[in-house]
Amino acid sequence: MISLVGEATIADPCPFQSKRLLRELRTFIRNDADRAEAAPGEHDDTVMAMGIALYVRDKLAQDQRRKRVN
Fold it and tell me: What are phi and psi of 59, to 5 degrees?
């Protein structure tokens, strides 16, 4: 899910107009246990929400493609 956020920011960063999301993306790290999360004292709620939204978008698009094939 988090990889979708990374892919989206690389593919086309312009759609991300939320200052809050951009601020949280700047402080989003991989910790010593290789877990993606907010840096200590920071937040990651909007990063996670964007990840969920992108995941749902991709699943809905897959469903639509399956319906067209069948």
Answer: -65, -40
In 10 A of CB 28, how many CB atoms? Answer: 20
Residue 11 domain boundaries: 2-69
Question: Tokens 């920071």, residue?
Answer: 42
Task: Tell me the three state secondary structure of residue 40.
Answer: coil
> 16: part of which helix (H) or strand (E)?
none
List pLDDT tens digits, range 7-49: 887 787 667 788 999 899 999 999 999 999 999 999 999 999 9
Provide the number of structural domains found in the chain: 1
* pTM as predicted: 0.77
| Inter-residue contact 44 to 24 (CB < 8 Å) | yes
CA-CA distances (angstroms) from residue 14 to 5, 9, 10, 55? Answer: 13, 8, 10, 19
